[in-house]
Design a protein that fits this description.
By secondary structure, the chain is mostly beta strands. The protein has no helices and six strands.
């Protein structure tokens, strides 16, 4: 994070980086703030992101959307970069 809040690593950028592990019924929603964009990468496994089926190596750049919704992971490991647009 830019400020090291909540024990996160300070990266000296206006960016947040999230990592997640998903299996079967697990899901998550991340709101996309005003003036922000998400870069989403599937490191391994498969997952549904905003109703799109993705698998290892796939990525999305998400702009002009209010929410990133992740669900139906199959041994999925994902990274989400919350960046200034």
């Amino acid at each position: 994070s830019p400020d090291g809040s909540q024990g996160s690593v300070r990266i000296h950028q206006d960016a947040l980086v999230y990592a997640g592990l998903f299996a079967s019924a697990e899901s998550a929603q991340l709101p996309v703030g005003s003036g922000r964009q998400f870069y989403f990468h599937v490191a391994r496994g498969a997952i549904t992101a905003n109703d799109m089926q993705l698998s290892a190596g796939d990525a999305l750049q998400l702009t002009d959307i209010p929410m990133l919704t992740l669900s139906h992971g199959v041994d999925a490991e994902v990274l989400v970069f919350d960046l200034l647009r």
